[in-house]
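User: Batch of two.

Assistant: Item 1 of 2:
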Amino acid sequence: MVRNDNTALYAFQKFGDTVLRAAFACCGSYSEAEDITQDTFLLLHAKPQSFTDDEHLKAWLLRVAVNKCKNLRRSFRFSRTDSLETQDYSSASYEMNTEDNSVLSEIRSLPEKYALVIYLYYYEGYNTREIAEIQGKSENTVCSLLRRGREKLKMELEKEGAI
């Protein structure tokens, strides 16, 4: 992939929705996900990078977005705002393109470390090695998080009577 002045625009057009969905899965708030997505592409525009191909670019964007989500969770503002359960998502104009939004809402209710791994694996189609690279963790750790996340998700879905 050749670097030029339109890399950020190209990246936004190609991967904007993917980054937004990942940020939304990670932080659970559409408005925060929009801000994180915007910050991610602004960073690419302000500090140009060189990428070998589109997958490298996509992985970099997701890594930056995940890190920004983690920073948000650690921030004072996040810890002093309403919980996700009190948020009204019905007014959001953004709808996830999924068959079953109840499963996605259960995934979002999981702890972040499980929700993000499950989302990247099942919704974005990454394998465990790629998720490990995106998150900066070992592949074994990602496999463990995925297994534990599946167990927690299964228990929650059984509680809700969804399975």
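Item 2 of 2:
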Amino acid sequence: MSGSWRRRWLAIDLGDRRVGLAMSDPGGRIASPAGYVERRAGKRPPLTALLAKASALGVEGFVVGLPLDQAGEDTPRALEARRLATELGTRTGLPTELVDERFTTAAALRAVQAMEGSTRGRKGDVDAIAATILLQHALRLFEHAEDVASDVSPDAPAGYHA
């Protein structure tokens, strides 16, 4: 990625009823909750609302949560996430990354319960926190990939890592 990941990212965590959102700072280092978008159950993801939110926030790239099963295989929701990521990239021309989101909702539920004690009536908050956990994970992955790439000497044989 060579530094190109340092931008304002919007993370998208698809759910049945809500799509959790998180946004990074302009340097792509810190993730913060950015609310959620309502979704009608059984309907396609709210692409128009997501594009409007992205435009309003001035995002420069998307991270879409990829819900894989325990074995790391695609689920029906993963196929939906892949289609959404492709559509976002095509419509905006912005970079779009798919990142494994297993366990982000469970981690968000634990975080809300630890802070407030109850998630009752706070499902949108849980979705936004899940997106924040997803985005922070993605930012760490991007930074790690850059660190690994910078450890390789230009004179080193192909595939060599210091």
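Confidence is low (pLDDT under 50) at residues 156-162.
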